[in-house]
Amino acid sequence: MNPDGSFRTPPRPPLAFRVGAIALVVAVLTGALAVAVLVFWFALALIPVAIIAAVVAWVAFRIQLWRIRRSARGQRAVFRA
């Protein structure tokens, strides 16, 4: 506080410090954007893998049902005889 009762403003940091601080913020934001893009790319790359896995699981399920039905038909023939 100044003798006349007004508040003293803090000194401004040097220009080089302000430019460096802005550059640091821009670099951090750019790095965060790059990481987000890589995560998004990885997620998109996994979509075909998930689709193929779902198709393989569906085929395996259908084969199991076919084997169970075929086995049940064979057992019915044994009981009829």
Strand content: under 5%
Please identify the structural class as seen in this structure: mainly alpha
The major sheet is characterized as:
none
Question: If you average the pLDDT, what whole number results?
Answer: 90
Number of helices: 1
Task: Report on this structure.
It is a single chain. This protein is mainly α and 81 residues long. The protein contains one helix and no strands. The protein has one helix at 15-80. The mean pLDDT is 90.
Please specify the SSE layout and strand pairing.
Layout: H1 15-80
Summarize the structure.
With 81 residues, the protein is mainly alpha-helical. The protein has one helix at residues 15-80. It is rod-shaped.
Offer a few descriptive terms.
81 residues, mainly alpha, 1 helix
